[in-house]
Write the structure tokens for this entry.
Amino acid sequence: MTTTHRTRARPMAPAERRDHLIDVTLRLLREHGREVTTKQIAEAAGVAEGTIFRVVDTKEELVDAAIVRAFEPGALMERIREIDPEQPLEKRLLILVAVLQQRWQATFDLMRRVGLVRPPHHDHPQADADRRRLLDLIVAVIAPDADRLTLPPDLFAHRLRLLTFAGSHPHISDGHLLTPEDVVTTLLHGLQRNP
């Protein structure tokens, strides 16, 4: 007769365990929405279900923390910082738009799955500071070629963000999502035929 032994998760500090559970919950929210169960979370995290309630009081508290985590801009900003400033402007913009689209499309999908109509803490001072930092990073991608543009880099960045956001949202775009090439070509070359 053989017995199956469950492998125990390695010991973690309380803060590390909380972070791990939040990350796992966020991943599962993208798949199951708010219907995700604590059993699913525990199995995916490799912990006993009771461990969750040593970290949070309720599943809703964990879900809320995961949703807030989804809107933290750290990973997005890091990907933008990785854009090589030595590449030609058009290539930098294509990468930038692709990065923004991936983030926003994942965010729109998460919001739909969990029933959000706007980001949590949208009007919080930290959200304003994060938006300013994000805009500064976008401007830094554009700025080396400022002399080639008809607008200052900050205004160009504003239009790029608006067009990318609208072109990435399935309802705003009437189901006709824009590709990074669509966005960049429109911004750099317009839509009028050359004479």
Observations:
- The chain is about 65% helix and 0% strand.
- The longest helix spans residues 89-114.
- The radius of gyration is 21 Å.
